# Entry
Amino acid sequence: MSTPALRKPLLASVIFIMALGTAACPATPDDDLIDAGEDVVEDISHDDTSDGDASHDTGEELDAEPDAELDAERDAEPHTDADVIEEPEPVDPCEDPVPADAIEAVDLSTGLFIGQPSGFDGASAPSVLVDSFEEYAQHFGIDPDDTLDEDDALEWSVSLFFENGGEEAWIYPTEADVPTQMELAGVDLPPGLLVIPGLSTIADEADRSDAFDLLGGLLERDEHRHVFFVGELPQSWSIAEIGDTEPKVPLDFYGNQVAIYHPWLQITADDQSIAVGPAGAVAGIFARTDRSRGEWKAPAGLDAELEGVESLDQDVSASEQEIYVEGFVNALRVLDEEPVIWGARTRENPAGEGQYISVRRLTSLIETSVLQGTHFAAWEPYEEEDLWDTLADKVESFLDGLFLQGALQGTTASEAYFVRVDETTTSVADINRGVAVVELGFAPLRPAEFHILRIEIPVATCL
# Structure
């Protein structure tokens, strides 16, 4: 059963107008390589332990590093430990006024894990936020020094998430490895990285189809448009299933909020090698890449080495990787004797600008940050020009910060982004219903076109 694309063209208060190409933007030096393979192109040769091939094309290029000082400053920022707490209620700007400060970047790297904890009795339990696997284990009564079993899918996912760079994770306990419709209906997810390890263990195709239909419904909810699902295939699947002209679930599950990775990981525990799904570790590398390089960087390449992993359950050659690309699956490969992520594309089909994970997540970063950082307008009287100037200044300042960090193309700010908030974006009807419409365009590192967002900001709604 084929699941429709997950992205709706109209999203509540935000309208995406993609791939317009309405503003000049300098082409990247490697534009002719964009469609050559998967997601990361590097002008460098390495030994490939999978097949001895010297050329590795992962698709989207790893763009130039941001300024070293900016990277060092970002990495030096303190990260406070999070207590295990119940999920907070959404912020109501009318009850909790937001000051008109600079727009801050929203964290998109929080892990969102849904599944059954080991030994969980199935009783109803609230979601909890943890900042380490030890804290997770303590909360659910697991001895962190005990060796995990191969069947402890959720525990392995959470453990590898933190080992590979994750810092915070919400845990949504369910009565079984695969969540039910009722359980998913009660879940309210913040922006972040969703992992449901039980999905890859479903043997029956009809059951798997039903489960992914439920996942599609979860991701289609407007409030979840910035939740990104990191998925995995069943362990036994190989190039035969990936290259099948009639793909089975989840290879018929598409959308730019979804990325799927294969093969599984080989972990050594108590001197025994066991196979573990890759999604948790991959989500951890997303988080690690966000902190060290930015959401606009592909979470793939030689820097995306999988920690705590001995090897991979299957080898993927360069020729086989081309089949992975055609099947919208991101390959994990062994290069220079190290397992790495070697692909960073979503499952957008047909492929457009949302095919690149880095572009999709940069769009989420800008939209969520602008929406959250302009809540102050709900307390402002609607004095058109003054309010419009204030909103434009704050959004421009935020985008300029991204430009200076290397998130956008262009040699000058005017080539990298623009912001408009005036009578051309906001009609009299908009003013009468209490909104200011911010139109912004930005040039992501790939592809060489502007993306344009129109974001409606509630004004004076709390007065």
